[in-house]
Every structure is written in C-alpha cells, then in structure tokens.
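Archive maintenance. Older records in this collection stored only the sequence; we are now back-filling the structure field for every entry so that each record is complete. The fields below show one back-filled record exactly as it appears after the update. Entries are processed alphabetically, and Protein YIPF3 is next in the queue.

ARCHIVE ENTRY
Title: Protein YIPF3
Organism field: Capsaspora owczarzaki
Length field: 257
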Amino acid sequence: MSTAIDFGEDDIPPSQRQPSQPQDQANMPSLGGALSAAMMSGLGQQIAGNMWSAGSEQAKQAYGAYARVDLLRPYFDVEVHQVRARLLRSFLPTRPSRDVDPVPTELYGPLMLVFSLVTVLLFGMKHSGTEVREGTLMGTALAICFGYWIGGSSIYFFFAYIFNTSLSFLQILYTTGYGLVAYCVCLLVATMLPGSNAFLLAWAVLGSLSAAKMALVFFSRTADRKQGLIVGSVVFVIHWVYLFYLFRAYHMIVGPW
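Back-filled structure field:
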C-alpha cells in the first residue's frame, strides 16, 4: 500500500523554491493598456478638435475673401465690346445727356489703361538704354501712371465738389482712366518717332479731343452753366497740359529732347 507524501512549501529547500509573482505585477499589463488607450483617445480628440478649428478658420477666411471679391465684381464686370466702344468714345467730344447717358463706375478698362501706359513708358526707357538715377524704371513708371490716375482724379473730385458737379469719385476715376487712351497713343508715337513733330501733332489732335471729352462730361453734370464751364475748363487744361508735361519729363528721363 503506497502512501502519498505531500511536500509543502516549508519542506522544499530554499534553493529549489520558485519566486512567486505578486498579484499587482500580474495586473500591470492590463492597467497599462487601459492607460495607453485613454491617452490615445484624448490625443485623438485633441487632434480632431485642432483640425476642426483650423478648417473652420480657413473656411471663414475663404468666405471673407470671396465676399470682398464679390463686392468688387460690379466694377469689373464688363464685356469686351463695351470696353472697345468706350475706348473709341473717349476721342469723341460729344456732350452726353445727363439723364440718358449716365457715367458708369467700371474700373476694368481704366486699370488696364494705366498698366498699358506703364508698359509704354517702360518701352521707351528700355529702348533708349538709359537708367534712372533714383529708384527703378518700373517704380518710376508706376508712380507716374498711378499718381496721375488717382491724384488727378482726386483733384477733379475736389473741383467737382466745389462747383456742385454730380459725379462720384468712382465715376471720375472711370472718366480719367479712359482719358489715358490719348496718353498711351501720343507717348507711343513719341517713342516710335523720336526727334520729329509727330508727338506735337498727336498731342494737338488726340490730346485735345480726349481732354474736351472729359471737360464735356464735367460740364454736363454741373447744374449751373457758368460753374460747369469753369470746372470743365480746369479739367481740360490739367489733362491736356499734363500730357505735354509727361512728354517732357519722360524724355528728360530717357534722353535729351
């Protein structure tokens, strides 16, 4: 008859005992996994929140930019045939009717004419092979063209305000801008035919027609005839004389005249 002998832990020699794992260490993997999952969940929510905030901010900026562009759309919404007709009419000094022919507020054509005038000036400067002492050729041309378009329109608006002329600043910008057609043509003639009287002929004919067209626009929008004659004469003289001054100053930059 065999008898089972139970060796307890006390009967096992110390050298043969296996170290026991505490219960806390056994639970460490599960606790670490839960903590890591919680951290990843919080980090994901934070990243998603940041992405949502950034996307919302970009959407607001895009909507604001579109709204600003949409405000400018009426001033640049024009057809090509309309611009062509207005370019031709800038040389026809006919008295427009105050009620039938309202002055537009379109700025596409005037802005393109300003850049065209810049191109004409740069062409003449580079064609002569000379340099400007102060600044650059581009800066000089931009200052001359935009300076007259905005500065000259401001002067005309000042006189229109004094003599009760029914023209807004945008309408004056439109009128002055299309008056630059004569500037582009006359200065291009002066550049292509230097040393001749071609510019003087173009200035006397085209320049005076363009200035007369602008003067009639101001005259027709002034209630009092005497005041309209005064403001029209001021506009005619400034626009016509400044073209000749620009020719002289332009040739002083690119070469002797």
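Update note: The chain has two domains: 40-77, 104-254. Residues 53 and 59 are 10 Å apart (CA to CA).
Entry marked complete.
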